[in-house]
Amino acid sequence: MKDTVYNLAFDFGASSGRLMLSKFDGEKITIEEVYRFPNEPVKLGQSFYWDFLRLFHELKNGLKLVSKKKIKISSIGIDTWGVDYGLLDKNDQLISNPFHYRDKRTDGIIKDFENMALLEEIYDVTGIQFMEFNTIFQLYCDYKKRPELLNYARTLLFMPDLFNFYLTHEKYNEYTIASTSQMLDAEKKDWAIDLIKKLNLPEGIFQKILMPGNIIGYLTKEIQEETGLSNIPVISVGSHDTASAVAGTPIENGSSAYLICGTWSLLGVESESPIINENTKKYNFTNEGGVEGFIRLLKNINGLWIIQQLKQSWNLHGIKIGFPEISQMASKAKHEEFIINPDDKLFIAPDDMAEAVKQYCVETGQGLPQDIGDIARAAYNGIVEQYKNCLNNLEDIVGRKIDTIHMVGGGIQDKFLCKLTADVTGKKVITGPVEASIYGNAIVQLMALGYIKDLKEGRKIIKNSIEQKRYFSSI
């Protein structure tokens, strides 16, 4: 391979977005950050929204910066968080800003589905973990509370689909992101139409499912003129950021699990087909779509969101502290025994995370954490204990021992978290890459363009491109 292949990977996270330039020389992939911008949700009245118009503006700003580099871009791929969506009217106009998954309008909604005796059927068909912000519950809230919105809607596009549409004018629902909705038939890899009809949701708004590794379309004339780029293909990558992160994890063998550490922690294994049985129901595991049709059998854990919000809480109270200091103080806490349940509703979206941690510890009879180290340690202990419980449940489901955890994402920069994970779980921990979603995004683009044969080859290239660290239990 003589020439370097350049691809653009957009990754939109819960707090920021970034544009990365991927460079593939035939053996290794190197990445360069071109542009980073905040993703600041907006509270309007009692509702919590994503500022989609601002995010699309920032996306175009990133493309303009790339244009100035005067290099040949082979393709573009976009991944984002899951479940949230935008609705378009008959003129393809966005009806309103998409709701944020932490908006409280779905609080208690699962009870309505219990009353309709639909929960078992939903899980049997979709295999998706029940969480109140899943698309199925958000849409049902639209149907119950603002039906006029759905009356005007002609198209539903998940967040990456929405970005892709305004770049190409092509409408699809990419497979991995659609699977997070809890409305996709896990076996058929298509919409669960019977379920959608039972909920009186308009089935016509759902688009054709497009698998990762296909060309969605090409930059429109308007986007080309505005950004200075040429008619570049936009690729359907693993559009759910977790799908891209799993694709970008150099998993070694069947006895390995992946652990993606960001705002959320996602812990699971790859499966060739959905696993939907009494154990997965009992443990509330999810069967989300992955690259090359793999199933991501995993559990969502409310992870570093808690640490992020602790930092914000202390900063608001005049204590200027960064993540490295929080980690260090947690590792040296006077009282190592404090622990929270990170999935308790108290920690979903509290006004003050530090006070929420204190409240939880007091209400559960542990006493009152006195300082930053104790509070942070309670959060770390809770997060890692959930990892341990999840791994035990996962081993029960798949019927085999897991000896290695491949830990990826921004959280692996926290060495205390990595070591604590190895100690508490008793597993070998291998970390890297930090930018797993970017690497996964990039290799799927390269697969679509014919530069990489398959996911297996792509992961070998990633492993050859990064530095990994290993942690072993000392307990």
From TrEMBL:
Span of domain Carbohydrate kinase FGGY N-terminal: 6-247
Record bears the keyword Nucleotide-binding: yes
EC numbers: 2.7.1.5
Cited InterPro entries: ATPase_NBD, FGGY_C, FGGY_Carb_Kinase, FGGY_N, Rhamnulokinase
Molecular function per GO: rhamnulokinase activity
Key words, A-Z: ATP-binding, Kinase, Nucleotide-binding, Rhamnose metabolism, Transferase
Domain Carbohydrate kinase FGGY C-terminal: 257-449
Family: Belongs to the FGGY kinase family.
Protein name (record): Rhamnulokinase
Organism: Thermoanaerobacterium butyriciformans
